[in-house]
Amino acid sequence: MNFDTYQDRAQETDQRPGDDESSLVVPLLGLAGETGSLLTEYKKLLRDGPAYRVFSERIREEIGDILWYVSNIATKAGLRLEDIAESNLRKIQNRWNPPADMPLLVGQRFLDESYPETEQLPRIFRITIHEKDGPTPSVRVFMDDEQIGSHLTDNAYDDDGYRFHDVLHLAFAAVLGWSPVARAIMRKKRKSEPRIDEVEDGGRAAVIDEAIAALAFDYARRHAFLKGVATLDYDLLKTIKSLTEHLEVRSASLHSWEQAILQGFAVWRQIVVHRGGIVLGNQYERSLTFQALQL
């Protein structure tokens, strides 16, 4: 039996048909009640252990009742269980299952692979970050022994290490194949196509890139800069997806964004400890790693 068949047959037993507010209250309360009954059965299992032999049978019954109420609510809301189930699977796969090679577009491994090599983010890159001492510590970033970007400070009253936040843009570049900020400082803007240069590599996209870095940094700051953290808050990832919905990186999964942020902060923590270092990016492996500077 599929979901649609179940939903249609379950609806035949509805004692409060209709789609008005009063008819919806009954299944909502019923769902809450049956959820409580499910928890009660689990409580009995915890209390009695193996002696509670009817646990599976009772759980089966309670889940069935929950399914009926869910089906009834869906019907009264004009929804189909089949569509709900398929949509839910897409959502959780996007959140938890990495693609085989984490491609960003169908038929493409890299977002910029159709552009000249001079306009492609380096598939493998080596970035050196140096901290400059002074009343206000600042950071300089080098690629191939040439400084890229501007001197960065924390722009804050407290020393929170935000001056090293370019590491996050590098993580986005390595793991997602996307970062208008990294593309700009590496001088890899796609000027051969003015519209792409304007929309995907332009000021608005760069502001979004910076906003995501700031959002992730604020979240990380409140969670020990993600030390020992393996998963990120779903709402944070959804917000990031929403911010990039009109850009080419919209096809990146929530899982890919999570990996980019986690890898970025793993390197950022090392950079902070060593007050600089070497950042190694690899788009083929979708990875960002740290290497200490040789003294």
Structure summarized in a few sentences:
The protein has 295 residues and is an alpha+beta fold. It has helices spanning 3-11, 21-48, 55-76, 81-96, 166-176, 180-185, 194-199, 203-221, 234-243, 254-274; strands spanning 124-132, 138-143, 146-152, 276-282, 287-291. The longest helix has 28 residues, at 21-48.
Tell me about this structure.
The protein is built from ten helices and five strands; from the N terminus they run H-H-H-H-E-E-E-H-H-H-H-H-H-E-E. The chain has 295 residues and is α+β, with helices and mostly antiparallel strands. The protein has two domains: 3-96, Helix Hairpins; 117-291, no CATH class. A five-stranded antiparallel beta sheet has the order 3-2-1-4-5. Strand 2 and strand 3 form a beta hairpin. Helix 2 runs antiparallel to helix 3 (55-76) and helix 5 runs antiparallel to helix 10 (254-274). The chain starts with a helix and ends with a strand. The model has no long low-confidence stretch (mean pLDDT 91).
Q: Ends: how far apart?
A: 68 Å
Helix/strand order: HHHHEEEHHHHHHEE
Classify the beta-strand content into a percent band.
5-15%
Overall helicity: 40-55%
Largest sheet: 5 strands, antiparallel
- What structural class do the secondary elements suggest? alpha+beta
The number of strands is 5
Number of helices: 10
Number of domains: 2
Report Rg.
Answer: 26 Å
Low-confidence stretches: none
Placed side by side, the strands forming the largest sheet appear as 3-2-1-4-5
In round numbers, the mean pLDDT is 91
Categorize the overall geometry.
elongated
Oligomer kind: single chain
